């Protein structure tokens, strides 16, 4: 039954696509969590979820999110977690429906929205993006661009109250300028969320990176997924 399939779409760039190390336990699926493959065929979900950049993609927050939600809701609900995030994609690529790393970003997201509504109930968007926009030239436009993109997504979903869960950027950059700019992006995210009752910000200040100091490590991705899940359960699932 459609109302028994809760669908969440993961969107944004590399930290949502995942760069954590996948462990053997991460590849064991469970029957109440599903996803799609390249052909949009339903399959049991396991890590790595994203498939757009197979040489780069690793553990993301999706499975830990889905497992935590599934554990805390009725056992007759199936969770579907659909990947659309592509590493390196700035907000303008999403707004302009650009072809980026082989993916037509906005069209691909819309395709997944249609899929979600065909088979189940779209419960929310899990968004993490902003590193590519954390520059002097892009920061002044980020708030308006983010609001515009979220408006476009909601219009396509036919739901002006569609919950959107937005993760902060990390706080671990060793480069002073990068750290400053990431902090500014986080403030912008909070500013946008403060004016929208259905945008929820996920805190990341204590999370730790891979050796590149750009991407969350596997342990942090698992924590991040649980925080997205807790926010969903505490705010929208009432």
Describe, in plain words, how this protein is organized in 3D.
With 238 residues, the chain is an alpha/beta fold. It contains 7 helices and 9 strands. The chain has helices spanning 14-17, 62-71, 91-95, 105-119, 139-157, 176-194, 218-235; strands spanning 5-12, 33-36, 42-44, 78-83, 99-100, 103-104, 121-128, 164-167, 199-202. Helix 2 crosses helix 7 and helix 5 packs across helix 6. The longest helix is centred in the middle third of the chain and has 19 residues, at 139-157.
Write a short abstract of this structure:
The chain is α/β, with parallel strands linked by helices and 238 residues long.
Describe this protein with a few key phrases.
238 residues, alpha/beta, two-stranded antiparallel sheet, 38% helix, 17% strand, globular
* Radius of gyration over C-alpha positions, nearest whole angstrom: 16 Å
By secondary-structure content and strand pairing, the structural class works out as: alpha/beta
Relative strand content: 15-25%
Mean pLDDT: 96
Helix content: 25-40%
């Amino acid at each position: 039954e459609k109302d028994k399939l809760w669908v969440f779409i993961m969107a944004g760039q590399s930290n949502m696509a995942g760069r954590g190390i996948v462990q053997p336990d991460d590849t064991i699926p469970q029957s109440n969590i599903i996803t799609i493959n390249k052909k949009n065929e339903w399959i049991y979900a396991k890590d790595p979820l994203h498939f757009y950049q197979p040489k780069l993609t690793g553990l993301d927050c999706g499975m830990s999110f889905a497992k935590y939600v599934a554990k805390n809701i009725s056992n007759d609900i199936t969770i579907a977690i659909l990947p659309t995030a592509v590493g390196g994609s700035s907000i303008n690529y999403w707004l302009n429906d650009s072809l980026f790393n082989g993916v037509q970003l906005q069209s691909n997201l819309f395709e997944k929205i249609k899929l979600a509504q065909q088979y189940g109930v779209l419960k929310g968007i899990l968004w993490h993006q902003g590193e590519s926009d954390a520059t002097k030239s892009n920061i002044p436009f980020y708030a308006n661009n983010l609001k515009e993109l979220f408006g476009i997504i909601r219009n396509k979903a036919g739901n002006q109250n569609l919950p959107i869960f937005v993760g902060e950027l990390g706080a671990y950059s060793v480069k002073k300028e990068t750290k400053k700019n990431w902090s500014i992006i986080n403030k912008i995210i909070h500013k946008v969320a403060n004016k929208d009752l259905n945008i929820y910000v996920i805190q990341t200040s204590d999370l730790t990176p891979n050796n590149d100091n750009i991407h969350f490590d596997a342990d942090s991705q698992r924590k991040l997924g649980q925080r997205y899940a807790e926010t969903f359960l505490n705010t929208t699932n009432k």
